[in-house]
Design brief:
about 140 residues; alpha+beta; Nucleoside Triphosphate Pyrophosphohydrolase; 4-stranded mixed beta sheet; 4 helices; about 35% strand; globular; binds 8-OXO-2'-deoxyguanosine-5'-triphosphate; DNA replication; metal ion binding; 8-oxo-7,8-dihydroguanosine triphosphate pyrophosphatase activity; metal-binding; 8-oxo-7,8-dihydrodeoxyguanosine triphosphate pyrophosphatase activity
Length: about 140
Amino acid sequence: MTGLQSEPAFLEVACAVIVRQGKLLLAQRASNGLWELPGGKAEPGESLPECLTRELQEELAVTVKVGPLMLTQEGLTPEGLPLRLHAFACRLNGQSPQALEHRALIWLAGDEAAKLSLCSTDRALLERLKSTGDLDNSAHGW
Ligand SMILES: Nc1nc2c([nH]c(=O)n2[C@H]2C[C@H](O)[C@@H](COP(=O)(O)OP(=O)(O)OP(=O)(O)O)O2)c(=O)[nH]1
């Protein structure tokens, strides 16, 4: 026993901040009913924007325009694994997302979103975005 502890291996997850008419798109996980930003885990060799483009095609049947990284939030997954959640501003350009893998989709203002049963890392991320005003600006900030 060396007593040394290795760094926790973070799950790297890219997620989309999609705002339409002041409302944010949230998705309900089929497995546990918690609400999250759509997206998913990066595969080996895949960049985070590439991951997000692929995940949103698979989950929502849309081809998004991925914009800038807004922020990265560290936390835990609902299963308790260390997570780095990378939020990108994205545009749908008029496409209508479909819940191909989620239980449901919803468009909500930031204050309403906070009342949902959110994944804990998403709650922290959304609080930070709201406090900087980036949630309001994300639709037209790039
Ligand atoms: N997509 C997404 N996942 C999140 C968010 N917040 C959060 O804690 N997570 C967690 C849930 C999962 O444990 C993990 C992302 O996994 P995932 O969506 O790629 O896929 P999954 O585990 O459901 O399934 P799979 O891809 O292995 O089939 O990160 C979020 O906002 N979006």
